[in-house]
Amino acid sequence: MLTERPLDFVDARGRPFLCAHPTPRGHGHPPQLFIYQPALEQVLRDGVARHPNVEVLLRHECLRLRQDAGGVELTVVGTADDSVHRLRASYVIAADGGSSLIRSQLNVGYEGRTYEDRWVVIDTEMIKPWPDHDRLRFHCDPARPAVDCPTPLGHHRWEFPILPGDDETHLTTDEAVYALVARYGISRDSIRSLRATVYSHHVRFAARFRVGRVFLAGDAAHAMPPWIGDELGLERAHLVGNSYGGACALRLALDTPGRVDRMVLMGPGGIGTTRSLPTAGLNNLVNYYGGDGPSRLKLETFIRQYLVFNAADVPDSASDERYRASIDPEVMAAPPLRRPSGPNALRTLWKMDFTRDRRLDRLPVPTLVLWGAEDRVNRPGGGCMLADRMPDCDLYVVANTGHWVQFERAELFDRLCADFLAGRR
Ligand SMILES: Cc1cc2nc3c(=O)[nH]c(=O)nc-3n(C[C@H](O)[C@H](O)[C@H](O)COP(=O)(O)OP(=O)(O)OC[C@H]3O[C@@H](n4cnc5c(N)ncnc54)[C@H](O)[C@@H]3O)c2cc1C
């Protein structure tokens, strides 16, 4: 596995104009991960081989699936000898790829679309490293954009769109592969071409992931290109945000109401902030990166004294995780939630208070506001301000709860949120 590779967007002459370095944020998984699929599959096969009660049937094809109340029966044919086997199982996970036969047999649709643009993906073995071979680069060259991507175990991948007039078959030949990468200064001595394949991007979801005792997984259940938002066809989405996240959700809804379906805000920031002095909790939060800088003690004090109603409910691990995330070098370089300063400070403060924004009075997005009655960071009175002003706003003020409704009253939050987002209110 390769993780945390710097990534650059470069222009046609290779000059970077946007650079980022993804680093872990305490989510329990790397923010970015490159795998070499044959190596991963080998690890999985070795793992399975450790269990004598698991039999792997390679070169076998499932032709039919039937299920009844007690289980599932599979008809499987050995492709080497035409042997026919009937297997019975309590449950089946069908991970048989994008063209899933099982999905068809279950009569489950595969909704979405396939892009017309076709791309060639080239996997190579690196023989001689070149400068910056370990950076992920997007070559934004209008003539032919390219993805230039390090992959583990001394491999490297390129992806190029197929342009009008290109001969697809030719593009997968070694000759074409070496010509395509030559524009980035990569010569035949540097790489050995392993595979070049033409593919299309699919954005598709199975209408259901489960039918009775059969579950669809992997590409059989969903396939998508590695980008999101507009390209995924997600024109509208529900937004759920707490505190600063709630403020971001509200800002997005005010700026682009057509893109937001429904919105759940938990103790959002920026409500009535110019109408009273900041709370002690907010001051504490804003000062976190000031003075002697962040510390585990400062963070734990903030959580236990200001963030929640009942300090005993917060496990140490929550403070550990939050502290680790708070000292991420990228976050430290541009700490969030700074007090506005300079000549435009007042103007900025004014703009940050949503109750000064007239668009609030006609925001058509159905909104659920949940606010802890004992919130010591953002005043619970903000809930009434929103409910009074917004045309379609439900408000719940939750007793014996601080700033983290979703944590402190998780069950209630889940129920209200699920009902509201499903349109049951
Ligand atoms: C060219 C290319 C490049 C890609 N690059 C990336 C990438 O960089 N990163 C990334 O995350 N994803 C990438 N993907 C997508 C990735 O390969 C798939 O998302 C992933 O392989 C899906 O795994 P899967 O197990 O669901 O399906 P598959 O890998 O398609 O496996 C399905 C398996 O089921 C078997 N099967 C099918 N029908 C039957 C049957 N009736 N009976 C028995 N067996 C059956 C097939 O033989 C196959 O072995 C790429 C895909 C392509 C085509």
From TrEMBL:
> The organism's lineage?
Bacteria, Bacillati, Actinomycetota, Actinomycetes, Kitasatosporales
Carries keyword RNA-binding?
no
Name the keywords, alphabetized.
Answer: Oxidoreductase
The protein, known as = Uncharacterized protein
- Superkingdom assignment: Bacteria
All copies of domain FAD-binding, residue ranges: 33-229
Question: What InterPro entries does the entry give?
Answer: AB_hydrolase_1 (IPR000073), AB_hydrolase_fold (IPR029058), FAD-bd (IPR002938), FAD/NAD-bd_sf (IPR036188), Hydrolase_4 (IPR022742), PheA/TfdB_FAD_monoxygenase (IPR050631)
Where the record annotates domain Serine aminopeptidase S33, the positions are 237-409
